[in-house]
């Protein structure tokens, strides 16, 4: 497993706190020279998804930072190989042997600096991106047109392919606002699949969906899943708790699901006991449970962070796990019995981990 390299601030500080997993995954991909063709941003927070896409666009086009990909074109491996890899575990594993890290700008984009509250004179590209008015950088694929259909039309998908085939001086970001198969349905997706898998030079896709399961498998297989949770785990200090690991307790239960589920129930009791140790009265139990759930999620995130940069399987697993945790914390916050909520969460986690084969 490659050692972590220093990361550069790509995104504004507030977004980095709210969506630490997403910003870490995207920044890590840039730092290690492993940007994907397409990113599937899952979750319900549309504003944060837009900020991730727009601030990536700003990083790649701002006069302060665009030297990243312009310099990459001068390397032995052309930029279309860096940004044109089919997204699959096998390809990532093969690429690991030769992929280079690129020299990163020391500064951040004007847009990221401005959103962080830093004084800055906005360059033209960042100003246009911030106003959703860039003529060459930001492209949106969404339902609409004369028919006012809820689906993205085949004609729109084909027109996007034709537009991207034209030469541009900008690094282009294509945003599919709703990539669920109810909207980005099979005919339209098929019309764009070739472009999604092998986009033109200096082009990247960001697809938005509430969950990867709502998206056509052919689209998911060509994308890197990045979770954008509604209730992200906290960025504060970890609680002072004895170390305990979910994946170790489930792995040691053996291959039988019944034993794994029993271990999951034991794990939920350990979480509840740990939460009890953090509180002085019942009024704080919901906050304490959220802190402990965040703590165990951070452990799992740190265990799989490097692997998630290289593998669709691990990145999707983390996205699904954060959705489970988001639901569990929401249930506790709405006064569902904490014991029942944690048991349900732990069993669902055990099932997810076994199916994803991430217990090694």
Largest beta sheet, briefly? 5 strands, parallel
Ends apart, CA distance between termini: 14 Å
Written as H for each helix and E for each strand, in order along the chain, the element string is: HHEHHHHHHEHEHEHEHHHHH
**Low-confidence parts lasting 5 or more residues at pLDDT below 50?**
1-7, 74-100
Strand order of the largest sheet: 2-3-4-1-5
Number of discrete domains: 2
Structural class: alpha/beta
Q: What is the rounded Rg?
A: 21 Å
Number of E-type strands? 5
β-strand amount: 5-15%
Average pLDDT reading: 77
Say which CATH homologous superfamily of the largest domain is assigned: P-loop containing nucleotide triphosphate hydrolases
The helicity comes to 40-55%
For the record, what CATH class of the largest domain applies? Alpha Beta
CATH topology of the largest domain: Rossmann fold
Named at the architecture level, the CATH assignment of the largest domain is 3-Layer(aba) Sandwich
Q: Outline, from the CA principal axes?
A: globular
Counted by DSSP, the helix tally is 16
How would you sum up this structure, described in words?
The chain contains 16 helices and five strands. Helix content is 51%, strand content 7%. The two termini are 14 Å apart. The protein has helices at residues 13-18, 20-31, 46-61, 67-72, 79-83, 89-95, 110-115, 124-130, 154-164, 186-197, 217-220, 246-251, 257-276, 285-310, 312-333, 338-356; strands at residues 38-42, 138-141, 172-176, 203-209, 224-227. Strands 2-3-4-1-5 form a five-stranded parallel sheet, with helices on both faces. The longest helix has 26 residues, at 285-310. It is of the alpha/beta class. The chain is globular. It has two domains: 13-227, P-loop containing nucleotide triphosphate hydrolases (Rossmann fold); 246-356.
